[in-house]
Amino acid sequence: MTSEAKLLSLLIGDIYDAAIDASRWMEVLDKLRAYVVGAAASLYSKDAASKSGGVLYDINIDPTYKASYFTEYIKLDPSTVSMFFAKVGEPISTADLMPYEEFTATRFYKEWVRPQKLVDALNVILEKSSTSIALFAVFRHERDGLVDDETRERMRLIIPHVRRAVLIGKLVDFKTAEATSFADTLDGLTAGMFLLDAAGRVVHANTSGLAMLDRGTPLRPAAGKLAAANAAADQALREAFTAAASGDAAMGTRGIAVPLPAQGGVQYVAHVLPLTAGARRQANISYSAVAAMFVHQAALNSPSPLETIARLYKLTPSELRVLSAVVDISGVAAVADALGISEATVKTHLQHLFEKTGTRRQIDLAKLVASHTSPLVR
Fold first, then answer.
1. Rounded CA gap, 80 and 7, in Å?
2. Which fold would CATH assign to domain 3-171?
3. How confident is the model over 189-228, as pLDDT tens digits?
4. Is residue 261 within 8 Å of 229, Cβ to Cβ?
5. In CATH, which of 2.60.120.200, 3.40.50.300, 1.10.10.10, 1.10.390.10 is domain 305-371?
6. Per-residue pLDDT, 304
């Protein structure tokens, strides 16, 4: 194994350990920052409807700037809207969202980015709902330069594992899963949990997992082994169990999850976590397991209101940024100041918005956005 491959393998192991012990995320983020090459890193979330958000974990981000971002600058950050159009798992740099020259003209860049001597960020959406997104980001300093192809490739190598670790961490808080109480802890999960050997035999299942097997969907017992009704899904599970027995390196850059079609068109997702290395060994002390598998129903991935409007009326990215600003900021002059463009440009985009949407006033645009917001979102 080359030194580069060994480094990646060790890093993947650290990522999975953080899925079990959340206290390890700070250390892991620092290693991810160094591997991708950047000055800082963060696991955070944004809500497009309320223009709010929060940080789960971060490394090397100034607390003052972090606080000001979520109290003021999140509304001025052009990525708050544009990022919702990105695909889950795809690395996105500033230049992917808007021309870099336009970015440097914004208040956000002048007042928040430049004072920290940052120049770029490589973001990846980990999870996406109708109004919110969870992201992992590595921020580039002046000395690092703008995001390049090597940076993107390094991000692509580690992001499937970051996604798996974060999503599994949402399903169970492993900090309380000591070896002596592991089974009791997992029995309280609403997600189905199975401890499996390399052949796919179930050595332990929690209450929700046993209920799935009783129903026979999306999984069923077959000759003492776990099986999926869908042939392609079943083969993918077998390969995942075999790879898990060989540890993190064998998992390579495999996909984050295995889709499990069920009866009635319901979709489930299975996440497989190796239990043969690092801190995860504590989870299988009492079992002959090589992997833990978490199965839960796939969430509906509805588009955000602005995303729906943009597609419906064929808005350009620039028009969408002006629309978002108009909803949050009143007046042409204020919008121009926030976006770093001239008032004439704002008026031009507004005219295009009026023509495309059949509206006449800025208040009509705000009503249009409100009409596409789900009444269930709070």
1. 33
2. Beta-Lactamase (3.30.450)
3. 567 888 888 788 888 888 888 888 988 889 998 888 889 9
4. yes
5. 1.10.10.10
6. 67
